[in-house]
Write a structure and sequence with these properties.
The protein has 3 helices and 8 strands, in the order βαββαβββββα. It is α/β, with parallel strands linked by helices. It is globular.
Length: about 170
């Protein structure tokens, strides 16, 4: 499978690229201003920050995985309330899915998930058309909409993230 990843970070090969290549997939690294999407160290609420285009949700025969910043951008464009804290939530948390599916197959539950963000999405602001799968306290940590899986944690830096990514890539 060919995977396109936009690299907003300064390193030439972010961790997720290494993980996906290790799983046997081809990866193309794009520049951040090709109207694509990715994670980012930028503030999603800054008017100068790039945003994910909702048109990707209409792509035929494509599956989309939005991690952290790109999830925040998409959910913001869909009307969700984003809350920003002054201190980064840079830690590992334990996540228990509300239900299991192909993504959680074989994962140890609770999932030990790495996160690093200033912004979160309140569960109560999630529209009914978006299916919540994992929450932490009152924060959306994983949800689904159409062809898109959105996670507010970093599988590429989590204990069983390789398996999570493999599950997503194998569907």
């Amino acid at each position: 499978m060919r995977i396109g990843i936009v690299n907003y970070y300064t390193s030439m090969s972010p961790t997720i690229v290494k993980v996906i290549r290790k799983l046997g997939h081809d990866v193309t690294i794009l520049t951040p201003y090709d109207d694509h999407f990715s994670g980012s160290p930028l503030d999603v609420n800054d008017p100068m920050s790039p945003q994910v285009d909702k048109k990707i949700l209409g792509l035929q025969d494509k599956r989309i995985l939005l991690i952290c910043y790109s999830m925040e951008s998409m959910l913001k464009s869909m009307g969700c309330k984003l809350t920003t804290s002054k201190k980064s939530k840079d830690d590992t948390i334990l996540l228990t899915p509300l239900y299991n599916n192909y993504l959680t197959g074989g994962l140890q539950i609770p999932i030990s998930a790495a996160r690093n963000h200033y912004t979160h999405i309140n569960v109560s602001s999630l529209p009914p058309r978006i299916r919540l799968q994992v929450k932490h306290k009152n924060e959306v940590m994983m949800c689904h909409y159409r062809n898109c899986v959105m996670v507010q944690w970093h599988p590429e830096r989590s204990e069983e993230g390789d398996l999570f990514l493999s599950n997503w890539l194998s569907k």
